[in-house]
Amino acid sequence: MPTDLPNLLTISRIAAIPVLVVFAAVGQPWGDLAACLVFSAAGITDYFDGKIARDRGVTSSFGRMLDPIADKLLVGAALMLLVGLDRLSHLALYPAIVIMLREIMVSGLREYLAELRVGLPVTRLAKWKTGFQMGALGTLLAGDSGASVIGLGVLPVSLIGEVGLWVAAALTLATGWDYLQAGLRHAGAQDAAAAPRGETAARP
Fold it and tell me: Quick one: a GO biological-process term for this protein (predicted)?
């Protein structure tokens, strides 16, 4: 049910996006810090919605459908904000591109495999990727200006965030390759199963 607590947490992740955009667009240190806090809170719900659903036995098709969508919308919005507001260095643009392309690829694979009634399980490495990705994006949204609000201006916060983004991109490539192999394996199996029928039908 959409009104179950896990699903409400997932929906809240989507609802947080316009709030995140508004705070980031303010262009003030307090706004950067607020954007970081909103993003971090939304990211934490990604852990709790799944955990609560499993613990209470209230997993649903609605939740399984919406959860990856909410994740990709949140990550995509954060990346576009950072790029659009010129909050990333030219070098950090490359891991951002890798992350966006991987998200698009995995979405396509999930859509294809769903037609075959095959799931794409989340691996332990993918969970590490998500952790580094969320931590890096939250740090970058705060930036040096947001960190100065709470007395952490002496730390190279933006640099730390960009390093985390590179780590997330490396894990993204590894997990993306695993998912791509799984998709190719199932596609090959489908073609092999369909080939004899196609050849038989082609004979006079």
Answer: glycerophospholipid biosynthetic process
- Straight-line distance from the first to the last Cα atom of the chain, in angstroms, rounded to the nearest whole number: 53
Burial of 197 (0-12, 13-18, 19+ CB in 10 A): exposed
Q: Would you say 10 and 74 are in contact if contact means Cβ atoms under 8 Å apart?
A: no
Q: Which sign does the torsion angle of CA 30, 35, 37, 38 carry? A: positive
At 89-114, the pLDDT tens digits run 999 999 999 999 988 888 887 777 76
- Residue 69 domain boundaries: 5-191
Residue 203 placed within a domain: no
Angle, nearest 10°, between helix axes 93-115 and 157-202?
Answer: 30
Examine residue 200 and state whether it is found in any structural domain, yes or no: no
* Total structural domains within the chain: 1
Cα–Cα distance for residue pair 172/176, rounded to 1 Å: 6
The CATH number of the domain holding residue 183 is 1.20.120.1760
| Helix H or strand E encompassing 197 | helix 157-202
